[in-house]
Design brief:
Blueprint (H helix, E strand, L loop, with lengths): L5 H5 L5 H6 L2 E5 L4 E6 L14 E11 L3 E9 L5 E10 L13
Antiparallel strand pairs: 1-2, 2-3, 3-4, 4-5
């Protein structure tokens, strides 16, 4: 298994949202995922105040058997934190039914 999965992720078929947003994954390991993108019109809010190149990094806060929590940070070209967020991911095998799915 590779140590860095970024090339695999960048070349996934059906990766439409990532490609439309112009994201490039620069590093993808079990302990960190990093990306960068040049901000364009598709990223602007109503007043158009976002500009420049941004870099994002996500690192796991917890990794359990069936769930993970990750913290993501977005920084501008000067390294200033401009956004952050957390996400909880469920790690459910395809063979396990979801909720009341008895099919």
């Amino acid at each position: 298994m590779p140590d860095d999965y970024s090339e695999i992720i960048n070349n996934l078929p059906g990766n439409g949202w990532v490609k439309a947003m112009g994201l490039v994954v620069t590093r993808a390991t079990f302990d960190e995922v990093a990306c960068e993108w040049q901000v364009g019109e598709q990223h602007m809010q109503g007043d158009g105040i976002v500009h420049g190149r941004l870099r994002g990094v996500a690192r796991p806060l917890t990794r359990g058997r069936t769930s993970q929590a990750w913290l993501g940070e977005i920084r501008d070209e000067a390294g200033k934190l401009v956004a952050h967020g957390t996400v909880r991911l469920l790690c459910i095998p395809d063979s396990q039914p979801l909720a009341d799915d008895r099919s």
